[in-house]
Design brief:
The structure is a homodimer of 883-residue chains. Chain A has 883 residues and is an alpha/beta fold. In chain A, 45% of the residues lie in helices and 17% in strands. At the A-B interface, helix 25, helix 27, helix 28, helix 30 and helix 32 of A face helix 25, helix 27, helix 28, helix 30 and helix 32 of B.
């Protein structure tokens, strides 16, 4: 059997179908489908993507049978249209369009009016009775073809056009006459021959094969190659070519062209939304020279709608809208043309839509019986929900972008600039909205971050301190904004373009795009609709994976519960150490030279930590709470600046030299790989002992006094060897059991570990002997697996992503090949030792849809993410089930 | 069949054998063996280690059959000795000794003279005709037994003994009479009853079972448990108990006791080496109260040798020496006692020996036909060779240790203290020997490290900069010496005990022990003997694994070749960047803001790098040379101190602010995980381009002009993803091919990568598509797999090792469970993609014997280590084959 390379469509019959996108490209497949279901589509045919593949495989030669297939299908089109390609009196004109599986900017797009020459133009004049129309179409064809097929510099022809207008003393193309266009066609051809040394092809067959060759050639042009590289599209996919008979929306006032959506793509409302222009070509609608008119009276406007101007065509189009929605069962984006009162469909595809529209359309379509709930859930992309959960810039507002950084935490906020956390707090107390601008933030800045509307940092990546904390708070943040230079001394920052922003100046941040703007740009508020709730109910019915949240305070916990969190997957106890009241005791502990001194200081912190845990347990009402024991190195709790050191010495009544010596002793070259996590617990057991006591006393008190049911999950961080865990677990169990006995209650508890070092994953079978749960700390696991500091990666990671050396930032979306391999291995090893081990993830990846799907697939029990990403994770978890 | 719990030996017959150490313990097995081969061993029996295991398994109860077995074997001993245990007139006395598989301090050792009481002592008086001897033996038994079996405070009895001497007005035990001892025995027993409330057991059977119980009980005492934990000895092994009839070396001048080695354990010379004392007990030889005499005239001495004093016994002993060596085929360490002219053997075991002795004995024994070459190779421990390759402290010299640090690089050196690299260099030029003392070293100190005899640092671990560079240079280094506090300003350092050492003071370092001593302690030089060369020839005939060296200079390469290196496994090109001439150009490169500026600066470095490679290639004479492209982050090449910054600004004529800003920009939180390795190559391709050009021009020139045969191996560091490697390989191949074409020669080359990040190991199948070789950079791989910075680990790693949380420093010996799992995985994945991929290791582990054996087992092609460890690696590689 010979391979079929060309697929015909026309007159209600098509060889292709909508599901043949891989072979026919998106455009070709949908033209065939529309034809099959009886819609008026100008007849034509599609050269398959396999032609493209064969072409490159065979050293730029077409398959032998192609020419005959094209000729026979062209004859079918001629028969249907009752015109002949190249015929002097009744010529057929065609368009030639590329159409790959995925839309691909950078490739040749379209050539219209193909088949025109000095002879056939006479036939068009005869057909249309409009000489000016015919020569205008002709000159457009020559311009377009010479540009994209022949490689002519298009400015050269435009220059001739300008000269002609000057000659005629007119300003607009529309003021030129038929004769002017005719003369220009001749002048264009002459100039082409002069410049290229080749004549413009007169033979329509030459024109057709030239255009087909240009489409296939453009598949390998540098722009297309770059686009494919950046979007991971394999070169083997190839492109298809669509050859279709021309129809015209610009042959008079009974002609029109337009685009429409079967529902409002912005709100999702169920009405027919579209725009059209009378006597115009498709390109005029998007070009913006004339203002398009609405197709109907659904929304009030002054312009006459198509519903009134061309009522019959409109009724036909409205009927088609209904057919298309019933057929595709999704909102469609369509293009149409009306030639002399006759409607033609030129394109249909699933329409892009905003997040609110996606939700409304999905929920409505279930009510209408068009789709089921599972399909509705799949129709909303998890990433889209982010738009819903934060304010966003008013899309109609003007904005002056002065710098671009990383989109670290979404939302849009305005405020006046401050440069220190203390200022942020004091200004906020007076009711002013402020943006905290720092080179980078540290845990000491948390109160200022709380007080500010948003945070802008010059350094740091997507998982820098500023980014992680801001996301946790649901606060807008632009991080790692290398475009700005912060000058604390002069209380200014300078943007790359030289704009200087002073303290007190108003700026706006868009944390979703990473943009910094001058002034206060208006924003629109998020709204969680009834439809949203309906959809999320379906989501929860589908997903297997539980979704917890990372929360350190009762407030965070409360927000997360509202977003549907089913527990706390990560409570970072060190955040509780920075509170003003406590930091003094923490520092006293660090500066103590012996166990007694440290225990004395820790005893002061104990009641406060206990209070924290009581608050968290109460808020979570019996849902699981995983509490991580102290993780960061101790030097993070000591001041760094000269003045802060002196202040602290005064407060603590210690000599400056002693404190400096301690800071010096604690200094680390690579704190990320230093004396932290369980290494602190091993060398200073009194710290973890205090924390475990606080956790268990909190739990026992609530159980005893308030009848709570709590199973605290105590998590020991940074385990590399099972021995570390067994030593620390033994200590913790002793304290837990002693506390439980002291209160005389029954409380169960779990002791587990973070898997955040490659060695822990590699030896998870050993570690599971001790660990009752694993929580994958994929932030640190990514850092160590890649050997990549998230705080330093800003210098090269953006370059890596831009140049596709990494497909994406591995701190944003889990690297499944490398880090994911370790996660998978650890799950298998852990379960082999302890079949009922609880498995979760608490890195930033817990809120990234692709990573959530990975977590579902490797069989984790839950993901944990910042409160504002909980709905995203829930939806992604449902998508994971639906596949 | 009932389990047999007791093994008899005596009168030329034994139920045990030397290879039954697991069952009988080392001592019991060898007593049995000696008995079987006809040597005079006092008869006795061994309670097996299984008794111990059963004892603990059954809640501290002995197996039911044990008592009967002991009784029947005791009867056999009685029959052979013609004495009866507990008999008033002709009593048998026994010793009870523990004996585990491995020698274990912390356990009960020995009880002598067991069976004595007020009745049997009369029998001993009758047997020996020496009342004083009998009561002396009796009181010793009471002291020993009450101490180790009954838990009596021994000072209490010693106090009574002192009182008695005062009473009698004498100073020495030997001045006390039979009556004195008799009275003391009574007084001892009374005191024991007073203090413990229990009478001293009079029944010899009670004594025997008490002693046996004490041995088994001591297996679980805290000291023994700690020792087992620290030495990874399983509790299940258990200990055996040896019950043996007593013989006495202290019954008169026809009695003696001694220890001997069948060859000189210090030099390995083949003569009978030993010491003895007339009329003495075994403990007197080691106690040092009397000076032992040599057993023969082999080495001149003033004291009468046993050869003359007890010629017959000596001849018998000399014959036994020969029997033992022929039987055990190894040098033996023996204990003997002569009772009234009759020789008894009490112990034999393989003798411990120095490295030179190990080599000489092994080589000699092959010549004597005792062992084959493979056995000889196995007889020398690879670690031992370290002693041979460096000077060591004269073991006879006095030393005042003032501080202890890490034994970072072996050897022993003296010199006067300097605190800067420049001083080290200028002092060394005047011919003075200096020790460079720094808080820590950096690449800028290399010239000073070269000039110094040794290096002492206050901070940093076994793989800190100082340690790694010093080992590479074969230079003595004590690193991470937290005992000293360096005060650069006052040019002093203070040791923990308060000793202040000034600039210019003489100190001595022992890099093998990590000790710092005041003054110049004499040392002895290493000697590589003919025997060494003979042994290494056998080694090379056995091993499969190749051994390369890590070398950055022709000098290093030359030294390594002398030690038998078969190529360079790692040449770190950045070390060439620190040379005074070049660092200026390097800094110019770093400070340039554009590619042109960087290329201009790099062009100055190119000819120098090329010269380096020509030197290396010439030295290695066609052996493979792996060159790693630039690895460290750029900030390592910029000064840090205020003054250095100002100086550099003057030299380079740049404003201080500009330089500071650059330094600030390049600052990293975690340089280990920062902008380094291939990340530099990707973002600044011009740097690697220069280096590749230098490598290939060097190779081409030598091939063209000197007819060399060279296959340079270009190694790209810090690869995490195959994409990084494919981009950099493409650049490198283009330059290589261009250079080869330019010279018009044929040069093959390989391009490969270090596997030093977990992600590289996990995706080694992908990386092997591009990489022609893998070299495991196990230093960094250990850092990232453990999440452990080697520069910071000093704060907790020693604690971890001391407390057996880690069995050993993973930077010294490869962590086979974790890091090794990644290495193994990467080997398998790499070979699956590219079956002939070359695999090696270039981390510090390449010179660690256990790690070398691991490398052999996972099938690497070579290991690479610092020049001075090459012989160690060769020997370890041979051991790996021999298993």
């Amino acid at each position: 059997m010979t391979q079929k390379f060309v697929y015909f469509f026309g007159n209600g019959m098509a060889e292709g179908r909508a599901d043949m996108k891989n072979l026919l490209g998106g455009k070709g497949a949908n033209l065939a489908e529309m034809t099959s279901i009886g819609l008026p589509v100008p007849p034509g045919f599609t050269l398959t993507t396999e032609v493209c593949t064969e072409f490159y495989k065979n050293n730029n030669n077409y398959p032998a049978s192609l020419a005959a297939e094209v000729a026979s299908h062209l004859a079918e089109v001629e028969a249907l249209m009752d015109r002949k390609f190249g015929d002097p009196t009744n010529p057929l004109l065609v368009s030639v369009r590329s159409g790959a599986r995925a839309s691909m900017p950078g490739m040749m797009d379209t050539i219209l009016n193909l088949g025109l020459n000095d002879t056939t133009v006479q036939g068009i004049i005869a057909q249309s009775g409009d000489e000016r129309f015919a020569y205008d179409a002709y000159r457009r064809f020559v311009q377009m073809y010479s540009d994209v097929v022949m490689g002519m510099d298009k400015h050269s022809l435009e220059h001739l056009l300008e000269q002609k207008k000057e000659q005629r003393g007119v300003h607009l193309d529309t003021d030129l006459s038929a004769t002017d266009w005719k003369e220009l066609v001749a002048a264009f051809k002459e100039r082409i021959k002069d410049e290229l040394g080749t004549a413009f092809p007169e033979d329509p067959q030459d024109q057709l094969w030239g255009a087909i060759g240009a489409v296939f050639g453009s598949w390998m042009n540098p722009r297309a190659i770059t686009y494919r590289r950046l979007n991971n599209i394999p070169a083997e996919w190839g492109t298809a070519v669509n050859v279709q008979s021309m129809v015209y929306g610009n042959m008079g006032d009974d002609c029109a062209t337009g685009v429409a959506f079967t529902r409002d793509p912005s709100t999702g409302e169920n009405y027919f939304y579209g725009e059209y222009l009378v006597n115009a070509q498709g390109e005029d609608v998007v070009a913006g020279i004339r203002t398009p008119q609405p197709i109907n009276r659904a929304k009030a406007t002054n312009l006459p709608p198509m519903e009134e101007v061309l009522p019959e065509c409109y009724q036909q189009l409205a009927a088609i809208r209904s057919i298309l929605e019933k057929h595709y069962k999704d909102m469609q984006d369509i293009e149409f043309t009306i030639e002399k009162g006759k409607l033609f469909m030129l394109q249909t595809r699933n329409g892009k839509r905003t997040a609110p529209a996606a939700i409304k359309i999905a929920v409505d379509m279930v009510a209408e019986g068009l789709i089921d709930e599972k399909t509705a859930v799949k129709r909303v992309a998890p990433e889209q929900l982010d738009q819903l959960l934060h304010p966003s810039l008013d899309p109609k507002a003007e904005k002056t972008v002065i710098a671009k950084g990383l989109p670290a935490s979404p939302g849009a906020v305005s405020g006046s600039v401050v440069f220190t956390a203390d200022e942020a707090e004091s200004e906020a107390k007076t009711g002013r909205k402020v943006i905290l601008v720092r080179v980078e933030t540290s845990p000491e800045d948390i109160h200022g971050m709380h007080a500010a509307q948003g945070i802008l940092t010059a350094r740091g990546g997507m998982t820098s301190h500023a980014a992680v904390v801001a996301r946790g708070m649901g606060k807008c943040c632009v991080a790692g904004c290398g475009d700005i230079k912060v000058d604390y001394a002069n209380q200014i920052f300078t943007a790359r373009n030289g704009v200087v922003v002073k303290k007190g100046d108003m700026i706006t941040l868009d944390g979703t795009l990473g943009e910094v703007m001058l002034g206060a740009v208006p924003t629109v508020s998020p709204q969680l609709t009834e439809d949203f709730n309906t959809l999320m109910k379906w989501v929860d019915g589908i997903r297997r994976l539980k979704v917890r949240t990372n929360a350190d305070t009762p407030y965070d916990a409360k927000v997360a519960r509202q977003f549907g969190a089913e527990g706390i997957g990560l409570c970072r106890t060190e955040h509780m150490f920075f509170d003003a009241e406590r930091i003094a005791a923490v520092r006293e502990m660090i500066l103590s030279d012996d166990v007694e001194g440290r225990e004395h200081a820790l005893a002061k912190i104990l009641p406060m930590q206990k209070g924290d845990f009581i608050g968290l347990f109460r808020e979570m009402k019996g849902l699981p709470v995983t509490i991580r024991l102290l993780d960061p190195p101790l030097h993070e709790f000591l001041p760094q600046g000269e003045k802060d050191i002196e202040d602290l010495c005064k407060t603590m009544k210690v000599p400056v030299n002693a404190l400096k010596h301690k800071i010096d002793t604690l200094h680390e070259f690579n704190p990320m790989l230093g004396h932290r996590g369980c290494r602190l617990g091993i060398t200073y057991p009194e710290i973890y002992n205090m924390q475990v006591t606080a956790i268990m006393e909190a739990a026992c008190e609530l159980v005893k006094n308030e009848g709570f049911s709590i199973v605290p999950e105590i998590m020991i961080p940074l385990i590399a060897t099972v021995k570390e865990l067994s030593v620390l677990k033994q200590n913790a169990v002793a304290i837990c059991d002693e506390t439980i006995a002291r209160y005389g209650v029954k409380v169960e508890y779990l002791i587990g570990t973070m898997i955040e070092l490659p060695r822990a994953a590699l030896t998870a079978d050993e570690i599971a002997v001790e660990a009752e749960f694993f929580s994958f700390g994929t932030n640190d696991l990514t850092q160590t697996t890649f050997g990549l500091s998230r705080d330093d990666a800003g210098k090269f990671l953006p370059f890596y992503v831009d140049n596709n050396i990494l497909p994406e930032d591995p701190f944003v979306s889990l690297d499944q090949k490398g880090v994911g391999k370790l996660v998978k291995m650890a799950c298998e090893l852990g379960r082999a030792t302890r079949p009922n081990i609880k498995l979760g993830i608490c890195g930033e990846h817990g809120g990234d849809p692709a990573s959530v799907i990975f977590c579902h697939n490797v069989g984790l029990d839950y993901v944990s993410c910042s409160p504002f990403r909980v709905p995203i994770a829930r939806l992604a978890a449902a998508h994971a089930v639906l596949g």
